[in-house]
Amino acid sequence: MQQPVVETLSGLERRIDLFVSVADVEKEVQSQLKRVARTAKVRGFRPGKAPLSVIERSHGPGIRYDVINSEVGRALDKAISDASLRIAGTPNLEPKTEGVEEGYMGFSATFEVYPEFDAPDLSTLAVTRSNVEVGDAEIQRTIDILRKQRATYEPREDRAAQDDDRVTIDFVGTIDGVAFEGGSAENFPFVLGQGRMLPEFEAAVRGLKAGESKTFPLEFPADYGGQEVAGKTAEFKITVNQVAEPILPEVDSDFAKALGQAEGDVDKLLEDVRANIQREVKARAQARTKASVMEALAAACTFDVPKALVDNDTANRVAQAREELKQRGVPNADTMPIPPEAFSAESERRVRLGLVVSKLVESNDLRAKPEQVRARIEELAQNYEQPAQVVAYYLSDRERRAEVEALVLEDNVVEHILSKAQVTDETVAFDELMGTA
Predict the structure, then answer these.
(1) How many domains is the chain partitioned into structurally?
(2) Torsion sign across C-alpha atoms 42, 47, 50, 52
(3) The CATH number of the domain where 14 resides is what?
(4) Measuring CA to CA, which residue among 210, 222, 146, 224 is closest to residue 182?
């Protein structure tokens, strides 16, 4: 019998020629046919009394197909084990006719293997660790945002529209003198300065009083959601119907109760706000640091990655993109073209990072420990009104617990790299970190 030989095709791609004995296949086929014949119900025969030749015609092809697949699978598994290969993805099997000895069936299995590589020298990585200071000014800024979110509005006859005012307008947009779909509205309200409208639109409204009008040009961005107007210049006429001034609530007992502080204790509210901000700042700063670490790690790794793994990640990202489009109500989200190439570079980076992170975890024992997972769950639970119930939920649900274990593992990898790398500490402005700059 011919022995399988591993052949390198290119990069990580390998091929093994497999040979299966026809006699062994037929022996197993006959054995299974006899077992089937004992209970088979065939028209014209009592159960279990149909001749083997009849069972062969009805069941033989299916049984033979399964037996061949099973024999080839065993041969492939043995060849892979003997060669100490780590397979990435599913092998592609094709029949082989040339060079096959009489009495054997031949098959060629083509597949990719995981790359052999050394983890980069972590001491050469230059990474940035982000730090943010949270003081009274940041707490007050957050309180002000919470007050704005609960503002009431009072119309002012002579008030010129300014940021944070709620304006109600009529507008008509035309392109080359023709009104276009979605370009007109009556009594349309929005709050100035929140970025809900295009900047040119807000700039035109700013400074107008109730009853005043203005006509101005507006160039839609090339990537604007409405394809019929994307990249074109429209002319808009706006008329302000109302300018309403925001009236912010006082920071008192009623305000505290509105934010979930049952006793209406303002001091306790401020403590809760500070604690929440510190948790959020810590999480965002850690995410920023992790991004820097992973970017440096990815840049230090240049080994080839299996195309099968990249294709699988790309397919998942396309599926996620479709799901997001469906959730946003985009029509034809299931069928609209989403080119996989848009994700392939990032997928390759993700796969490469995943492989090197796995090597670091294995070689440095960075797996998530039970006590770390428990501590992380308790930390996450502090964001909820009943932390104990959240902790119990995570500990009892294997899937949720696995998600936390993955987070802890990433944290362990980041901390390990920070302990070895060239680290530069940076202080990030609170507004920059929170995205309110």
Answers:
(1) 3
(2) positive
(3) 3.30.70.1050
(4) 224
Range of the domain at 170: 151-247
**Of all residues in the chain, what percent carry a pLDDT higher than 70?**
99
3-state secondary structure 377-418: HHHHHCCCCCHHHHHHHHHHCHHHHHHHHHHHHHHHHHHHHH
Q: What is the largest CA-CA distance in the chain?
A: 101
State yes or no: pLDDT of 437 exceeds 60.
no
| In the predicted structure, residue 153 carries a pLDDT above the cut 90 | yes
Residues 6 or more apart whose CB falls under 8 angstroms from that of 105 comprise 19, 20, 22, 25, 68, 95
State the pLDDT at residue 436: 61
Q: Are residues 302 and 232 in the same domain?
A: no
Side chain identity, residue 107 = F
Q: Which residues contact 267 (CB under 8 A, 6 or more apart)?
A: none
Residue type at position 139: I
Same domain (yes/no): 416, 286: yes
399-424 pLDDT, tens digit each:
999 999 999 999 999 999 999 999 99
Spatial distance between the Cα atoms of 329 and 437, rounded to a whole number of angstroms:
30
234-243 average pLDDT score = 94
pTM above 0.85, yes or no: no
In a domain, 301, yes or no: yes
Q: Are strands 422-427 and 126-131 parallel, antiparallel or unpaired?
A: parallel
For residue 257, being part of any structural domain is answered with no
The answer to whether residues 47 and 182 belong to one domain is no
DSSP track, 249-300: PPSSHHHHHHTT-TT--HHHHHHHHHHHHHHHHHHHHHHHHHHHHHHHHHHT
Report residue 331's pLDDT band, with 50, 70 and 90 as the boundaries. Answer: confident
Q: Are strands 6-10 and 233-247 parallel, antiparallel or unpaired?
A: unpaired
Q: So what's the pLDDT on residue 97? A: 85
Instruction: Summarize pLDDT for 71-103 with one digit per residue, the tens.
Output: 999 999 999 999 999 999 899 999 988 888 889
Rounded CA separation 305/116 (Å): 10
